[in-house]
Amino acid sequence: MIETTPLIFVLLLFIIILAAIIAIHKKDLLHSVILLGIVNTSLAAIFFILKAPDIAITQVAITAALETSIFIIAIHKTERREEA
Q1: Domain span at residue 69?
Q2: Residue 83 has what pLDDT?
Q3: 17, 25, 36, 54 - which has most CB atoms within 10 Å?
């Protein structure tokens, strides 16, 4: 029988890699920031699986919430789309 923890771990790693690659190729900066938030939240879930809940909480609080909010505010005050 396959354990679910390694399967979830591999799925989260796949999500991180896929979201990061898509974020790099997006022209709309808001979409890239949202994908970055997905990467950070998935990374926090990996920390939680690895039995490091303090680091997972810090990851969610700082990078997934605060950093994403700061990026969204910065994008709101500037141009939303990258110039081609």
Answers
A1: 4-77
A2: 66
A3: 36
Angle at 40 between CA 65 and CA 63, to 5 degrees: 40
- Tens of pLDDT along 14-62? 999 999 999 999 988 999 999 999 999 999 999 999 899 999 999 999 9
**84 in a domain, yes or no?**
no
**Contact in structure between 69 and 53 (CB atoms under 8 Å):** no
Distance of alpha carbon 68 from alpha carbon 55, whole angstroms: 18
For residue 33, give every residue at least 6 positions away whose Cβ sits within 8 Å of its Cβ, in sequence order, or none.
68, 71, 72, 75
Indicate the pTM of the whole model: 0.85
Rounded to whole angstroms, how far apart are CA atoms 83 and 69? 22
Q: How many domains does the chain have?
A: 1
- Dist CA 51 CA 49 (whole Å): 5
